Amino acid sequence: MDRATASTTPAATPRSMFESSGVQALLDQLDAELVGLAPVKGRIRDIAALLLIDRLRTEQGLQSQPPSLHMCFTGNPGTGKTTVAMRMAEVLRQLGYVRKGHLVAVTRDDLVGQFIGHTAPKTKEVIKRAMGGVLFIDEAYYLYRPENERDYGQESIEILLQVMENNRDDLVVILAGYRDRMDTFFSSNPGMASRIAHHIDFPDYSEEELMRIAQLMLGKLNYRFDDGARTAFARYVGLRRDQPHFANARSVRNALDRIRLRHATRLFALDEAPGRDALCTLQAEDVLASRVFGRPAGLED
After folding, report:
1. What is the H or E stretch that residue 57 is in?
2. pLDDT by residue for the chain (301 residues), tens digit each?
3. d(Cα 160, Cα 167) in Å, to the nearest integer?
């Protein structure tokens, strides 16, 4: 390219870089997969913008260094934390922050051994698998058990701290769990707290959002509610949210599995071959057979 041509070539704008990076397509996919969570999706967009501006600064010869992107996801079960972590890994790969963009999801049992000498190899093996991507540690507060002086979780934490500091340009660690328990964990482990740059809270879904989630789940499986079933399931969601152990989208998915089971049992009892419409349509009786209606609280079905 000669000098005249180069001078007329427009400089890349942040917006054009964002579109050409493929990140927008990933965010669109996240929108299609997850209802609501506007603050969470906004934070992902902010992180993508940070990395793109960092790239522009590098191209302009300005001093730059990879930002720390270790994160903490807090919220109740079934609010999309694992799904967002998967998409975050892909976004980071698209932007060149990590090499592979894969997700390794683990819990305490994958990191901490039960005997002397077992924890370090287990933790290092998990880290080795996660390099180039994202390490997602669910219920991370279980790594720290001060009530048990023989617990080996602290050894795993110390290894993680070293890797999070020395390899932050090729590994992002996401800690996840209930907010109050994560707050206690960080207050007891200031070294870990200082390495977490981003705290993202995942709110519970509203009843309207849970209904939209149910419709999306059914659509992917070629099922649908008839009008009576839709009304009944809205009642179900309202009742179930007030019962113990409600897990947002996860509870909705489990409820739909049981409704499909009742639907299959109902069709199986018919002395005729069901047509396509019958195979796809869930009726009110499939929903209303749940123990949530008219049964003591705490019985999930």
Report:
1. helix 38-59
2. 444 444 445 566 767 776 777 777 878 887 887 888 888 888 888 888 888 888 888 878 887 777 889 999 999 999 999 999 998 999 899 888 889 999 999 999 999 998 888 999 999 999 999 999 999 999 999 999 877 777 889 999 999 999 999 998 889 999 999 999 999 999 999 999 999 999 999 999 999 999 999 999 999 999 999 999 999 999 999 999 999 999 999 999 999 999 999 999 999 998 889 999 999 999 999 999 999 997 554 445 5
3. 10
Q: Residue 84 belongs to what H/E stretch?
A: helix 81-94
How far is it, in rounded angstroms, from Cα 177 to Cα 179? 6
Rg (CA), the chain: 24
- CA distance from start to end of the chain: 68
Q: What is the pTM of this model?
A: 0.84
Distances (CA, A) of 178 to 62, 76, 142, 152, 264: 40, 6, 11, 22, 37
Please tell me the total number of residues recorded for the chain in this structure.
301
Rounded CA separation 9/4 (Å) = 9
77/252 Cα distance (integer angstroms): 12
